[in-house]
Amino acid sequence: MKRILILIVLGLSFLSVTAYGWELYVGNEAANSITVHNQAGQLIDTITDPLINFPTQLAFRANGNLYLALCTTGKTIIIDQNNNVIGYVNTNPAQGLAFGENNHLYLGGAEYDENDNFVKSFPLATVMTVGPNGNLFLVNNGEHKVYEVDLNGNILNQFSTGSGSYPRGIAFGPDGRIYVSRDLFNDIGVYNPNTFALERTITGVTSPYQIAFDPLDNHLFVASFPNNNILEFLYTGQYLGIFTSGLSHPSFITFKSQCTSWEDVIKKYQEYVNCQAP
Q: Is the pTM of this model over 0.70?
């Protein structure tokens, strides 16, 4: 049905004035807040609540709600599509957080079902992401390693990010490579997804924390914790820009796609199909 609708709209697209984009959500450790930024880097909203204390990884669920892990309390915050805190899940203090293809919540150390009920214990992670193959890739910064884990919790592969690197973030690039921010190396390591060999590095960052690729142009965004800024790069490593508005020790970031019209439907067809309208 969705594909039929898109074909109809393509036939009528000359009638449309369109806009397609994203918003960036940033966890600010020093301010205990989530700031929301538009594509120009401008601050458009700030989410605060007494429950938000030491925010760590955050991710959107398929229903459009944002989940926020907390490092110091046994709660994972739930934020609705209007950026209001609407509740929490009782969990252990955690950092890594992601949603699997089964819509389960994976939270460094545990798995919860689609209704946020505990399922089973799970390997610990400082930060995590879902790979193209549906497996979870878990960063353990104390061990300076990345683990590939299936949804049953079985460790399939692992690789080192370099002794003393202290990895903080992970993302898959548009080239299929694994990008890992290495805090103490002040760079982004780019790894082969098959051999896990380090192929190249992206420099020009200071103490990088979480990283993410935007859903429109696949630009790489990097949270620089001590410098209170977000840096933007091409995936090839070319520097594009910086923004600082409203940031206070930014640590974890995630994107929310904006599917409010039809621009770039052909170019960004897959993003549109998968996008969660606000």
A: yes
